[in-house]
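Case study 2.
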Amino acid sequence: MGRVLRITLVRSPIGSKAYHKDALKTLGLRRLSQSVVREDSPSLRGLLHAVAHLVRVEEVPETEASREGEEDAAAPPTPPSPGGQASS
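Prediction:
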């Protein structure tokens, strides 16, 4: 596994250019203080360069990164809502 980065949205994209908002959407950042963990790559670095003034980036130790991935995988699936189907 390569380097892993934690990206946190620290400034609001309100008033930012459309391509900055698109970059944040691509990164998966929607709310202030929201963090995502991504594996480092050249394309990720390009996105981060575009929105460097809106995000904080920190390198995550591999042990912590693997723990965060396990928590996401261990989440139980959401059950379907009972009101979704009509009875005859």
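The domain at 4-69 is CATH 3.30.1390.20 (Ribosomal Protein L30; Chain: A,).
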